Amino acid sequence: MSKKLSQNQKSWWLITHLLFTAMWIGGGFTQIIMIVLIHLTSSGEFLYVAHSFMHIFDLALIIPGALGVVITGIVLSARTHWGLTKYYWIISKEAIALILIASGGVLNIWVQDAIQITLTERLNALNNTAYLHDRFMLGLFGAGQLILLVSVVWISVKKPWGKRKSKRFAEAAGQ
Predict the structure, then answer these.
(1) pTM score, whole prediction
(2) How does pLDDT run across 24-47, given as a tens digit for each residue?
(3) 20 to 30 A from 75, CA-CA: which of 51, 105, 112, 130?
(4) By three-state DSSP, how is residue 128 classified?
């Protein structure tokens, strides 16, 4: 993959990258809305449906968005002047993406548990300590994930950290 992208190709890859980013962030915002609503409801059926929708949004928006961002990000980095490890801002985006994807698996466990509990207990789930734990962790980690996603967008726009010094450059400078 050493051949550089043309300007037109780069533009299309960047547009695709941004669309996948929008999917991922849109899914994250949707999850937060559902989490807020499950804290406000007094309907057992709504609890079950809300958690079920959270799972559907995960499958339809968050997972494809995350995978699309990673794939298009790798292509954009590897086939442009940015490179995969030349800039600190790219390295930070890669690290945050890995953290988000790994923690997304944990969030899915809490969603699945909440679906099962609300399926059988409906409104009585609000008296179930396992459900209350799952709901709390979904809110806490969901908000954290959304903050990290928005941070990645900020990093992409601001590019706050510069280029890494190569070993060759450091050796030439006598360091």
Answers:
(1) 0.88
(2) 999 999 999 999 999 999 899 999
(3) 105
(4) coil
